[in-house]
Amino acid sequence: MPIEESHLVFICGSALSGQPDNGNLAGAKFCGPVKTAAEYRMHSVENGWHPGVYETSNEGVSIAGELYELSQKQFDFLASTEPPHMYPAGIKLDDGRLAIAMLYPKELVESNAWPDISEHGGWVVYKASN
């Protein structure tokens, strides 16, 4: 019997616990709250539709989120539900582990001048403040 591949996936937007798209993680194992290493920025993209996170070499912050273990099938489904332009990439957690996250092209953030919300403490805190 083949062993099914699984992925540790960092979630920091609308699929977080209690958020509207959390059902996209149905059946995934919740591994707990986590933060990224202080190497990322988060912006409110498409008029607040979703967060756009990208890696940066300067002025990065730690982004709050949750870690899930997903099978390949679950990951493929999650990726299919993500907004346009998001792409899977490795992300560093503050405890040294690596995970996969859905990142957003920095160039699109900059060309659209979407607001930087990195200092809000995460997507849920930002959404609650608006």
Task: Please provide a written account of the structure.
The chain is an alpha+beta fold. A three-stranded antiparallel sheet has the order 1-5-2. The chain is globular and about 40 Å long. It is built from three helices and seven strands. The mean pLDDT is 93. The chain has a single domain, classed as Gamma-glutamyl cyclotransferase-like (Hypothetical upf0131 protein ytfp, Roll).
Short key terms for the protein model shown above:
130 residues, alpha+beta, Hypothetical upf0131 protein ytfp, three-stranded antiparallel beta sheet, two-stranded antiparallel sheet, 7 strands, 18% helix
Give the topology.
Layout lengths: L5 E6 L17 E7 L4 E6 L4 E6 L8 E8 H9 L6 E6 L5 E6 L2 H7 L10 H7 L1
Antiparallel strand pairs: 1-5, 2-5, 3-4, 6-7
Number of helical elements: 3
Class based on secondary structure composition and strand pairing: alpha+beta
User: Superfamily at the CATH H level?
Assistant: Gamma-glutamyl cyclotransferase-like
Q: What is the first-to-last residue Cα distance?
A: 50 Å
Going across the biggest sheet, name each strand in turn: 1-5-2
CATH class: Alpha Beta
CATH fold-level name: Hypothetical upf0131 protein ytfp
Q: What level of helicity do the residues show?
A: 10-25%
| Rg calc | 14 Å
